[in-house]
């Protein structure tokens, strides 16, 4: 049922805000997920991911702002099951119904033939358990069945809330291949997670939120690049070396607990040269590679709950809003 026109669309969110009584769950959020790629929507528990996805899918009304699929609000899409596949909550399954039976019910509801139900079971690796009752399924199998349900209409856009939840490493690897090939075909994939490491191998772009607000949007590689590795320096006088570096305008140096000085943005040779001219001996250096999970925690540091704040503001789009991944550094 794939046509030559199968192509994802931009998912765009402009100034999206949701206030529940005194809690601002999502605060003036703007981002875009482009077609032909997988975008990771990341943030700690309670950051506002699910609330955002629910607004994007028209399940709850925003306090302010808009969410569109190819410039059209989701609720205005004529045939949504063929345009957007979504998995938000864990799938409610009739425990006595078989996997195939479940899919046939949904296939009938959206007007696709039963043959498609068998096809998607194959796609998600459940063909062998087609006639098993869903009540006997593990969490990972239920996740696969939920995904099969979402792709029944062969939608070019996928929105998945924590799809890796409950999957073992093999399941995560399978999901990665599935989503990457979806994007390679031209689809738009947006997946949420509260663990960057879980989706690091899957996503091209990341949108990171904390307390309902955007803290980073851009290519994952740019995030890595902006948080480049640092060099750990053991020196006769780490404080003296730090001062010598500051005198040269290099402020990205700080002490680590073991007494070494962590310096970013300079080569080993450049550090040696600054140390020499300050009369400081360098005993040794070691490269400390960037740990993306650490970067993620820093960006979202201390965030465990949505903020309590004044009444909702009226949305006005940020100047120069960019329709695609940015190459910016964390703000
Ligand atoms: N219906 C609601 N009524 C009141 N507060 C809500 C409601 N839904 C969500 N919230 C609050 O909004 C904030 C964001 O919740 P949300 O579920 O969107 O976060 P999340 O990033 O998806 O977190 P998790 O990964 O834990 O699901 C939380 O403080 C939550 O308690």
From TrEMBL:
Gene3D superfamilies linked to this entry: P-loop containing nucleotide triphosphate hydrolases
Sequence ranges of Pro residues compositional bias: 309-320
Domain ABC transporter: 11-236
Alphabetized UniProt keyword annotations: ATP-binding, Nucleotide-binding, Transport
GO molecular function terms attached to this record: ATP binding; ATP hydrolysis activity
Keyword Nucleotide-binding: yes
Domain of life according to the entry: Bacteria
Region described as Disordered: spans on this chain: 307-331
Pfam families in the cross-refs: ABC_tran
SUPFAM superfamilies listed in its UniProt record: P-loop containing nucleoside triphosphate hydrolases
Keyword Cytoplasm: no
Family membership: Belongs to the ABC transporter superfamily.
Name of this protein: ATP-binding cassette domain-containing protein
Organism annotation: Antrihabitans stalactiti
Lineage: Bacteria, Bacillati, Actinomycetota, Actinomycetes, Mycobacteriales
């Amino acid at each position: 049922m794939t046509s030559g026109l199968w192509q994802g669309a931009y998912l765009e969110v402009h100034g999206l805000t949701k206030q529940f009584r005194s809690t601002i769950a999502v605060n003036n959020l703007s981002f875009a997920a482009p077609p032909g790629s997988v975008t990771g929507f990341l943030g700690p528990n309670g950051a506002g991911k699910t609330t955002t996805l629910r607004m994007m899918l028209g399940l709850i009304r925003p306090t302010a702002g808009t969410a569109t699929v190819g410039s059209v609000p989701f609720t205005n899409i004529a045939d949504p099951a063929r345009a957007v596949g979504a998995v938000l909550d864990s799938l409610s399954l009739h425990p006595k119904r078989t996997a195939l039976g479940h899919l046939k019910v949904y296939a009938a509801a959206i007007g696709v033939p039963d043959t498609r139900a068998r096809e998607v079971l194959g796609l998600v690796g459940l063909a062998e358990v087609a006639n098993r009752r869903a009540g006997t399924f593990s969490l990972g199998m239920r996740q696969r069945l939920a995904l099969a349900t979402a792709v029944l209409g062969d939608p070019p856009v996928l929105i998945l809330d924590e799809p890796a939840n409950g999957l073992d490493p093999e399941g995560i690897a399978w999901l990665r291949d599935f989503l990457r090939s979806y994007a390679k075909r031209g689809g738009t994939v947006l997946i949420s997670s509260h663990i960057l490491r879980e989706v690091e191998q899957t996503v091209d772009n990341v949108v990171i939120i904390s307390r309902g607000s955007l803290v980073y949007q851009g290519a994952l590689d740019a995030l890595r690049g902006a948080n480049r590795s640092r060099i750990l320096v053991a020196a006769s006088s780490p404080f003296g070396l730090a001062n010598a570096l500051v005198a040269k305008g290099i402020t990205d140096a700080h002490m680590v607990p073991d007494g070494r000085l962590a310096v970013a943005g300079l080569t080993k040779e450049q550090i040696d040269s600054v140390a020499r001219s300050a009369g400081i001996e360098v005993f040794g250096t070691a490269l400390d590679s960037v740990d993306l999970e650490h970067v993620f925690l820093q960006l979202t540091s201390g965030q465990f709950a949505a903020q309590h704040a004044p009444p909702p503001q009226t949305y006005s789009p940020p100047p120069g809003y960019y329709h695609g991944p940015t190459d910016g550094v964390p703000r």
